[in-house]
Amino acid sequence: MSFDGSSVKQPTAEHFRDAAGLDMFRLRAGTAVVELAPGRGGLITRFAVAGDEILFLDRGTFSDRKQNVRGGIPVLFPIAGRLTGDRYQVDGQSFPMRQHGLARHASWEVIDVQQARVTMECRSSPATKVNFPFDFVLRMVVDLGRAGYRTLAIEVTIENSGTRPMPAHFGLHPYFLVSDQDRDRVRVEVDASYAYDNTSGESGPWSGELDLTAPGVDLHLTDLQSQTVLLHVPGRTPRRIEMSELFTTVVIWQSAMQDFLCVEPWSAPGDALNTGVCLRTLEPGDSLRGEVILSV
């Protein structure tokens, strides 16, 4: 359904079912609209302001529940990226974990709806403990109702609800709508000192230069000097990504001949459950909070 938000004055939220029968929520505020699918991993599927579509979504992968969704803003937990050998160890025991973790495959529960604000939870279960043997609550607030109505705020809280220390690695994977033919004119401003190229395996100080015309890009930027990233898309208002201090890594990823560019805030570099680099550990009863704000 197309919606430009021009007639909406007050922030609202509505529940609906899409063409594939998925439960969805639509948030509206001013000229902005957000749509999300709790049952598809808490996925934010759409963010638009005054008709400016900010996110890419492959509807085919979204409708097919057997596929990983390509598009929107997938939630990455308890890992972001891929583990070496797709495994990690806890107390000498090895556990398998597929790329980007469990949360994006889970059905999230909506626990609160207020105006243009939805709160969802993903909780540990016997099924999650096969791969991640910890009790946890992952809570996410999707808020479109902040001043100006040109901002999508995503607040996340990770809680250790168990009885032993728990590693916590979290990320978001926004797919920004960028035409493949415009790649040579797209710019990404990230103030970082170090880069790891996951395609070539090379690493070292980062010059700030980024070639988005390459067949594929998978660049991991660390040692951030600023928590703000700017994405410049030709003919569109710059996309501004502001991250709280939880996030230490920005991943820039794209696939050849696709109309998207991913700019991903992660709390630690890939393979953190094995390397321990920037990995946060929560003691029983403790929680960790972070926030990412997308605005135009």
* H/I helix tally: 2
pLDDT below 50 for ≥5 consecutive residues: which ranges? 1-6
Helix amount: under 10%
Give the N-terminus to C-terminus distance in angstroms. 22 Å
Approximate strand percentage: over 45%
Radius of gyration: 18 Å
| Largest sheet descriptor | 12 strands, antiparallel
Give the averaged pLDDT, no decimals.
Answer: 95
The helix/strand series, from N terminus to C terminus, equals EEEEEHEEEEEEEEEEEEEEEEHEE
Number of strands: 23
Query: Which structural class do the helices and strands define?
Result: mainly beta
Globally, the shape reads globular
Describe the protein's architecture and organization.
There is one protein chain. With 296 residues, the chain is mainly beta. It has a domain of 96 residues. The protein is built from two helices and 23 strands. The strands form five sheets. Strands 9, 10, 11, 12, 15, 16, 17, 18, 19, 20, 21 and 23 form a twelve-stranded antiparallel β-sheet that branches. A hairpin with a 5-residue loop joins strand 1 and strand 2. It is globular, with a radius of gyration of 18 Å. It starts with 11 loop residues before the first strand and ends with a strand. The N terminus is likely disordered.
Search tags:
mainly beta, five-stranded antiparallel beta sheet
Provide a quick synopsis of the model.
The chain is mainly beta. Helix content is 3%, strand content 46%.
